[in-house]
Amino acid sequence: VPAVRQLLPEPAEVIDPVAAHAAAARPRPADRPWVALNMVASVDGATAVDGVSGGLGGPADKAVFRALRGVADWILVAAGTVRSERYGPPKTPPELQAARVDRGQSALPRIAIVSRSLDLDPDLPIFADGAPRPLLLTTADAPDAQVERLRPLADVEVVGAESVEPGAALAVLAGHGAATVLCEGGPSLNGQLIAAGVVDELNVTFSPLLVGGPSERVARGPQAAGLDLELAHLWQDGAVLLARYVRAGA
Ligand SMILES: NC(=O)c1ccc[n+]([C@@H]2O[C@H](COP(=O)([O-])OP(=O)(O)OC[C@H]3O[C@@H](n4cnc5c(N)ncnc54)[C@H](OP(=O)(O)O)[C@@H]3O)[C@@H](O)[C@H]2O)c1
Fold it and tell me: From the CA of 130, how far away is ligand 1's center (Å)?
């Protein structure tokens, strides 16, 4: 575990990201699960280098990534990210699994993938034997052949006609017991969640890099009304800054 220091709201020399994220308040709104986003970005706002986020992250970002997965009931991710990052199942260590069970959660978070095309490689690690079955949230116009190809490997739920609406996706996850949903991107899904007004928390790791290039920002999509955020904490690992924001008034 890297030596993460807290700068705000009050200085603390050593922070355990797992314990701190487990202790953070995430009051479930009345009509849907709590929704947290987690992204890593360069200081100039890039979220990918050569098409993947790996060049931006480091040990502290990975620690926060694991800590947030530790508190989430469900992980929500869009198909573009699953393809480019070659997603695998959550690697929740035994002690974190035990802590989850003590809190009344399942030992492992489950992963829901949003896709219209269902163009997902069956050889992706996320579909491997023995891994928890992912849930594919798709649309009525998804190609039948893709549905049949992936059904042995994943649960499939049709959530919309042409598009998986954020509210409908969250309702499905709530029906599967989700009180806390962690969205791991990518920018197109983040943008839709922001536009729908359903983001309660944003975790951003700012990597000390300037990368330029064509990368997406943390979110893209329809212009949103704007979501006011409060800074819940700011951590530091060397030149890496790790911020947690929550929706104002949440
Ligand atoms: N820095 C970070 O922390 C971070 C995190 C995540 C991702 N990334 C990067 O972001 C990039 C990917 O982001 P992206 O914005 O291009 O793609 P994305 O948001 O990950 O995925 C887009 C795809 O998701 C599906 N999708 C999205 N909204 C949908 C809806 N409403 N209904 C049905 N399907 C929907 C579609 O899949 P189909 O095409 O299958 O229909 C769409 O093509 C990658 O380079 C990745 O490395 C960075």
Answer: 26
N-term to C-term CA, the chain: 30
Whole-number Å distance between alpha carbons of 15 and 20: 7
Measured at the CA of 97, the angle between CA 96 and CA 101, to 5 degrees, comes to: 115
* pTM of the shown model: 0.98
Nearest-angstrom CA–CA distance, 40 and 114: 20
- Distance between Cα 43 and ligand 1 center (Å): 21
| Whole-angstrom distance, CA of residue 9 vs CA of residue 1 | 21
CA 118 → CA 156, 182, 191, 212, distances in Å? 10, 21, 20, 31
Task: List the residue whose alpha carbon is closest to atom 37 of ligand 1.
Answer: 115
The alpha-carbon radius of gyration of the chain (Å, integer) is 18
Per-residue pLDDT tens over the stretch 166-220: 999 999 999 999 999 999 999 999 999 999 999 999 999 999 999 999 999 999 9
Find residue 53's DSSP bridge partners: none
Would strands 240-247 and 201-207 be described as parallel, antiparallel, or unpaired?
antiparallel
Query: What tokens does 39 get?
Result: 């992204």
Structure tokens at 77: 């991710």
